[in-house]
């Protein structure tokens, strides 16, 4: 047996052992997953935020958005998603930021057929629920923030049901 063949056999033995060991470990229980929160780190209106992954049904990049004339300045237009055409809103503007360059990323909200566009996707986070604390400041409530993720960089957690309610009311307020 050559040196290379011995290395390959040794590596194969290591992988086999790791595979077998994975069945010896106890499976994750509901309490394991109940103690963590899965989040998407994003930037909207050039500010860092997080979204709850459970509130999102899809994440897209460089999706073509077709502009539509509308009195609702937050409405960027419409886009096709898996055979459906959905309205797409500027998340930064919904959070109170001024209109900026066209956003590159967007999510589709799980609770409604609506897309929310934002500038940057920073990654997915799995964090302990203990690192999420309430944020009761009046300015935060206006910006659809109810909680803060406290890690090395504090990030407000966007309350997507609150954003969705605002989107539903946009056309009604502007028609009056």
Overall form? elongated
Q: What's the count of strands?
A: 11
The profile of the biggest β sheet is: 5 strands, mixed
How confident is the prediction overall: mean pLDDT? Answer: 87
Elements, N to C (H/E): HHEEEEEHEEEEHEEH
Query: CATH superfamily, called what?
Result: CheA-289, Domain 4
Strand residues, percent: 35-45%
What is the name of the CATH topology? Answer: OB fold (Dihydrolipoamide Acetyltransferase, E2P)
The name of the CATH architecture is Beta Barrel
Give the topology, please.
Blueprint: H1 3-24, H2 30-34, E1 36-44, E2 47-52, E3 56-61, E4 75-81, E5 84-90, H3 91-94, E6 105-109, E7 115-118, E8 120-128, E9 132-134, H4 138-142, E10 145-149, E11 155-158, H5 160-175
Parallel strand pairs: 5-7
Antiparallel strand pairs: 1-2, 1-8, 3-6, 4-5, 6-7, 9-10, 10-11
What does this molecule look like?
The chain is α+β, with helices and mostly antiparallel strands. It has a single domain (36-175), classed as Beta Barrel (OB fold (Dihydrolipoamide Acetyltransferase, E2P)), CATH 2.40.50. The protein is built from five helices and eleven strands; from the N terminus they run H-H-E-E-E-E-E-H-E-E-E-E-H-E-E-H. The chain has helices at 3-24, 30-34, 91-94, 138-142, 160-175, and strands at residues 36-44, 47-52, 56-61, 75-81, 84-90, 105-109, 115-118, 120-128, 132-134, 145-149, 155-158. Strands 3-6-7-5-4 form a five-stranded mixed sheet. The chain has a three-stranded antiparallel sheet with strand order 2-1-8. Strand 4 (75-81) and strand 5 form a beta hairpin. The mean pLDDT is 87.
